[in-house]
Amino acid sequence: MSKLTCKDLLLLLLYVPGHTSNICEPIHGRTRLMKMVFLFEKELYHKFRYDQVIQESDLPDFKPHNFGPFSKEVFDNLEFLINLGFIESSNSNQEAHEDEAQEYYWWKDDAGIFEDLYEDPLFEKYNEESFALFPLGKRFVEENVIKELSENQLNALEMFKSNCTKVELSILLKYVYKKYHEYTSQSRIKEKVLY
What we know:
The chain contains nine helices and five strands. The protein is α+β, with helices and mostly antiparallel strands.
């Protein structure tokens, strides 16, 4: 049995059914996806470690950041899989949740992308990103990743995805902030989320 990586986990989260019960159900928003990977590590990983399907050393390192727990590795892996043609990132044409949009602006600002005077976050409307598997990613998961998991592990992932995708982002953030407060020390929205 080969072990699964953080990249495989991202692909699995996009493959398994969620609240719609359809495989390859998209996940809406970078913040939601980030919190899902974080919650997998904290609350679901124990179902995967006993048979060493996923090694703890292969899980991303989360640190306190602007919106609570953040892992640069998750963002880097997501971009890698998008560039590889496994994951599609699309604009949902729906205005993003306020917290999602604010995180996007801060992320661009931290990266120095707003250097041009004409490119100002006040003038840029951010629409929510949706992430879904391209056929190449779906085939990779079906041929290489799914076979590594037990039926119980797949069921746990499906229930997990359903729970994380059926609630508003603000509810998911509040849950993470209350339960894992040690990851909120750098948060720019802590007061807003908790009170």
